[in-house]
Amino acid sequence: MAPLLFLPLLQLFLLYCITSSHAQINITIGSSLTPQGLNTSWVSTSADFAFGFRAVEGNSSSYLLAVWFNKITNKTVVWYAKTSSSGQEAVQVPPGSILKLADGALSLRDPSGNEVWNPGVTDVGYARMFNTGNFMLFGTNGTTKWETFGSPSDTILPTQVLPLGTTLHSRLLVTDYSNGRFQLNVQEDGNLVMYPAAVPSGYLYDPYWASNTVGNGSRLVFNETGRIYFTLINGTQTNITSAGVDSMGDFFHRATFDTDGVFRQYVYPKSTKARHLSQEEWRAVDALPHNICRAILNWVGSGVCGFNSYCTFDGSKNMTSCLCPQSYKFIDDEKKYKGCTPDFEPQNCELDETAAMMQYDMTPIDRVDWPLSDYEQYSPIDETECQRLCKIDCFCAIAVFEKATNTCWKKKLPLSNGKMDDTVSRTVFLKVPRSTNSQSVLSSGYSKWKEDRKHWILGSSLLFGSSLLVNFILISILLFGTYCSITSRKKMQLLEPPNNSGLPPKIFTYSELEKATGGFREVIGTGASGVVYKGQLQDECRTNIAVKKIEKLQHEAEKVFLVEVQTIGQTFHRNLVRLLGFCNEGTERLLVYEFMGNGSLNGFLFSDTRPDWSLRVQIALGVARGLLYLHEECNKQIIHCDMKPHNILLDDNFASKISDFGLAKLLLLNQTQTSTCIRGTRGYVAPEWFKNIGITSKVDVYSFGVILLEIVCCRKNVELEAGEEEQTILTYWANDCYRCGRIDLLVQGDGEAISNIKKVERFVAVALWCLQEEPTMRPTMHKVTQMLDGAVQIPTPPDPSSYISSLA
C-alpha cells in the first residue's frame, strides 16, 4: 500500500519538474516579441524579472526594450537598450515593431522593417531570462555571447559585477531615459569615479567622488548578500554601501545611479513577512555621496541642480531636491535641471543710484549659498554698504556678507553650485524688485489729479455736446463741483490717507498754529529737538494735532530745512507718526504731526500698572517694522539717531508709532564743537558715537535692543534704586539671566509672560544681538523682524564684553 500512496506524490513531483522544465526552456531561434498582444515579454522562471517591451511613461505609443521587476506594481526598469553601446538615448519604438531571435542574431525592427537595435553579436543559438535579472544570449555551443549585465544602463543587481571600462549613466529624468548629467566610471586605471557631465555632449567636468584606488583587476561588485563594494586585484575591498542591509529572501534589491548623481541602494518588500513590516515601495537604504549638495563644487557647470537654483538634502529619506530662490521660477517645471530664471525684468544699467535703491530690495536667504560666480570683493566693509553696492550695480544678482572677516562678494548670473546647508555661515542677500511701487516725487500726485480732472471734464462735455442747455448745466455743475472739491481738498488735506503720498505736506502760517494751540499753551512733550504742544485744527473734524517748535537752527540747518521736511513728508508707514504739515516763517520752524491719544511708550511702560504681555509684543513688533521701513524701505534711508521710549508714541488703539525721525541731520548741523556731535539719550546711545568711526543705521539697532529689553521687563534700562546691585543696569542683568538660563527672573510676577517664556527668551536673545558692541555684529532691522516673528532660527548671541559706553 505504501508504494501506492507514494505514487500521487511522485506524480506531483514529476509534474513540477515538467513545469519547471518548460519554464527553463531556452528562448529558441524563431522566437519573437511585439509591443502589443499576448507575447510582449520573456519572463524568468521565478517571474521576478521580464525582458521585452515596456510602454514609456506618459507615452502609450512609444515602447522601450527593457528588463524590469515583474512582480511589483510599478514594474521598475533596471536595464534598457540604447542606440549603441555608447549611445546617448534609449531605444524607443512604436507599435508594430518586432524583436526576433533569428538567423543567429537578436534584432529589433520598426514597422517598416528597418533595424533599430541589435546587441552586436552573431552565431546566437538561444537566449534565456535569468532569475537574477540578467538576460543572456548563448552560442550554439553554450558559450556566453552577450548579456544585459555586461552593458548596464543606470542600475545594477545582486550578483552583477562591473569590470574595468564599465560606465553607468544617470537618466536625464526619471521618465527620460536619455543619458543624464552624471556618470559613474570603473576606469581602466582601477579608480571608481563619479563625474558631472554636460548634456547632451557628455563632456565630463571635474569628479565629485572617487575611490582613489589603482589596479588592473579592480571591479565593482554587488554580491548575493546585498553588499556593494569595490575590490582590487590584491583582494582589498572598499565598501560602497553598507553590508547586510536586509534579507535577500524577503526583499528585492537594486542599486541605481540616480538622476541627481547619487548612487543609491534600494530595497522592496518581496515576502509576505516583509510586506507586513514595510510599505510596498522602494526604500533607499544607503547612498553615495551621502549628501550630494555638499559633494559637488565645479567652476564649470551648474552643480547638482540647474543654474540659479539650489540643492536641498533630506537625510531621513536620502533624497535631494532642487528649489528656486524668491522671485525666480523654473524654466521648465518638469525639467528642473534647466535651472531657474528671474521672474522679473533685469535691472536697467541706465538707472541712477537713487532709482536703483528705490526699485530693489536685498532679501536675506537663510542657510543658502552659491559659493562661486564672484566678480567683485570688498574688505573691510559693513553689511549695509555691501547690500547698497549690489543694489546700484546692474550686474549684481546677489551679495554675500561674511561677518567674521567683514568681507563682501558680489555675484552675477548665472549662479552655480547652489546649496542649502546648515554649514552655511555667510549671509546671502538676493536682489529682488520691491513689492510695492516706489513713491513718486512730491508734485506727481497733484499733477496726476489735475490731469485726470481735465480729462473727466472734457470727456463729459463731448459726450453731451449735442445739447447746449445740457452742456451748460453740466459744465456749471462740474465747475461748482471742482470748486467745492478744491475747497474741500484744502480743508481735508491734513486727513488724506498714506497712499496719497505724492501730495506735499500742508504749509501753515505761524498765526494758524498759534491759534490752533491756544497760544502754545498745553505742553505735551519736550526733547532735544524742541517742545511739543497739543492743538486742534479749525476744520470740520476738529482734528487734534501735535505741534513741535524746533529750537533755533543754525544758518546751515535752515538751508536744508525744507529738503528734510519734504523727505519726512514722503515717509508713510503705519508705525511712523505722520507729518501733516509745517511752518517755515521768518525764524520760526514748526512741524505739525497727527496727535497720539495714548502718549509715549515711556509713560505706558513705566507706570504703576504693568501692561499686558500680548500688547507689549505688538508694540515691540510695530517699533521694529517702523525702523525697518526707515532703514530699508522708504525712498531715502533715514537713521533716527535718538530712538528711546519718549520718541515712540501710541495711538488710540495702542499701535506703536516712531516720532522725531528725519530730524537727525538738522540737529547734527546745530551741534557746537564742544558737543562732540553726539546725538541720542543716555542709556540708548550706541558705542560708536564715542569712537572715530562712521555712524550707520546700526546705531538705531543698538537703541532698539535697549528698548526691547525695557518692553519685555517693563522697567527702565538704568534704575539706581533697584533692589539688587546687579539689577541696576538692565542690559547687564538681562545678559546674566540669559547666560544662566533664568529668563524667568526678568518677567517675575508677570503670569502671561511666564506662560510665553519661549517668546520671552527669543525677544531677549534678539535684544542681545542688537546690543553687540561691534556694529557689524548687530543684525539689520530686516533680520530683527524675522527673528522676532520666529521666521528664522536665532543663534546664541555672543556675550557682550561691555555696556559701559551705552551709559555715557
UniProtKB/TrEMBL annotation:
It is found in: Membrane. It comes from the Eukaryota. GO terms for biological process: defense response; response to other organism. It is a single-pass type I membrane protein. Residues 518-792 form the Protein kinase domain. It catalyses: L-seryl-[protein] + ATP = O-phospho-L-seryl-[protein] + ADP + H(+); L-threonyl-[protein] + ATP = O-phospho-L-threonyl-[protein] + ADP + H(+). SMART domains: B_lectin, S_TKc. The chain crosses the membrane at residues 456-483. Residues 29-150 form the Bulb-type lectin domain. ATP binds at residue 549. Pfam families: Pkinase. One of its GO terms (cellular component) is membrane. It is an enzyme of class 2 (transferase). Its main location: membrane. GO terms for molecular function: ATP binding; carbohydrate binding; protein serine/threonine kinase activity. Keywords: ATP-binding, Disulfide bond, EGF-like domain, Glycoprotein, Kinase, Lectin, Membrane, Nucleotide-binding, Plant defense, Receptor, Serine/threonine-protein kinase, Signal, Transferase, Transmembrane, Transmembrane helix. Residues 1-23 form the signal peptide. Its EC number is 2.7.11.1. PANTHER family: G-TYPE LECTIN S-RECEPTOR-LIKE SERINE/THREONINE-PROTEIN KINASE SD2-5 (PTHR47976), G-TYPE LECTIN S-RECEPTOR-LIKE SERINE_THREONINE-PROTEIN KINASE LECRK3 (PTHR47976:SF89). This is non-specific serine/threonine protein kinase.
